[in-house]
Amino acid sequence: MEAMEIACKQLIGRPPTALTVSSYKTHSMNVQPTQQLLAKCLQLYETVTVRHSLMVVGLAMSMKTSVFKVLEYGMNLVKDKTRFEDVVMFTLNPKSITIDQIYGNFDPVSREWVEGIGASLVRKCAQFDTDPDLAPKRKWILFDGPVDAIWIENMNT
Predict the structure, then answer these.
(1) Distance, CA of 99 to chain centre
(2) How many CB atoms neighbour CB 143 within 10 A?
(3) What is the 3-state secondary structure (H, E, C) of the chain?
(4) What are the distances in angstroms from CA 120 to CA 32, 91, 115, 138?
(5) Rounded-to-integer distance, Cα 24 and Cα 45, Å
(6) pLDDT digit string (tens) for 84-130?
(7) What is the pTM of this model?
């Protein structure tokens, strides 16, 4: 508890940077802002600036989701928008729903396409570009769950 108070006091009065904002978020998430966590946030930031999509894999409870949340929070609060663009993140657990619910399917009775959750999230992200009030620069759709060969192969196609 004492260490947390010291760390929070160090953040007060500083101009917000990616590291100080990310450190604050880790405290609100009850996660320690270790050098490894903040290094992973910076590595993730460097990766998303040059890639359109990526996959983060690791053991259970290895803070993969926390890295994304801390980076999203930090990028949204930093005032230097020339380097750190605003982010909107949509999270979906692909193991909690069926493949048809993720991607959509053709209904043989009505002969209509039923849009899946993943497709509707992509549509929502595309619609953000047309509305200047809702146009953050980056949209992240996070499939947060165990990797399954079926849904990941469908995503590749």
Answers:
(1) 21
(2) 19
(3) CHHHHHHHHHHCCCCCCHHHHHHHHHHHCCCCCCHHHHHHHHHHHHHHCCCCCCCCCCCCCCCHHHHHHHHHHHHHHCCCCCCCCCEEEEEECHHHCCHHHHHEEEECCCCEEEECHHHHHHHHHHHHCCCHHHCCCEEEEEECCCCCHHHHHHHHC
(4) 35, 13, 7, 17
(5) 17
(6) 788 888 998 888 888 888 888 998 899 999 999 988 998 888 888 77
(7) 0.74
